[in-house]
Amino acid sequence: MNCPIALCYAYAMKKRPEQTARTKAELEQAFWQLYSTTPLEKITVGALCERAGYNRGTFYLHFRDLYALLEEREEALLAGMTECIEACMQRLAKDSGKLSLIAACTDVVLFYERNKVYIRALLGTRGDSSFMHRLKDNLKPLWREYVLRPNTARSDDEVELMLEYTLTGTLYMISDWLTHPGETSASDLAHLVYDFAIKDARSRAQD
Length: 207
Hints:
Structural class: mainly alpha
Largest sheet: none
Shape: elongated
Number of helices: 10
Oligomer: single chain
């Protein structure tokens, strides 16, 4: 980017990190507002900038394109989920009883709730299907180690299929809970996840 104005702006960005962070956050917010109702391929940088109140040049100082913006947030979510899962596994390594499993489910549900703006859009009908697959890949080690493997004589292929069934349903249940909030609390949902995604999965693994 060799434009003198752009170079001056880029220098100013480095000198004002708080303003830079706020500008980037406002661009991201505008993107997710659009992405929640519009397929990615129909969103334009112009429409995003109009909503956020910035010009196109400002957008390109922060992001290569719309796909880069989406990927950056997805990677941050996956990194956060990985950290959450690792903490759950460390706890369950000491105690994998019912209460500990419900606590682990609660931690996962609360992570989704904290990031519900993104999770609703990504797991919704207009979302990124690859994100669902990557989320499941993050969750599978937890389920293999502490839900299915200690209790099953199933083959690896059967375990993989069971995990696909269980985790797909679990993620859609959480997505629906985030999209249509009712009286079910995060703790109540964690108990549902335990009943349907852990207890039932263990029962099927033993059949």
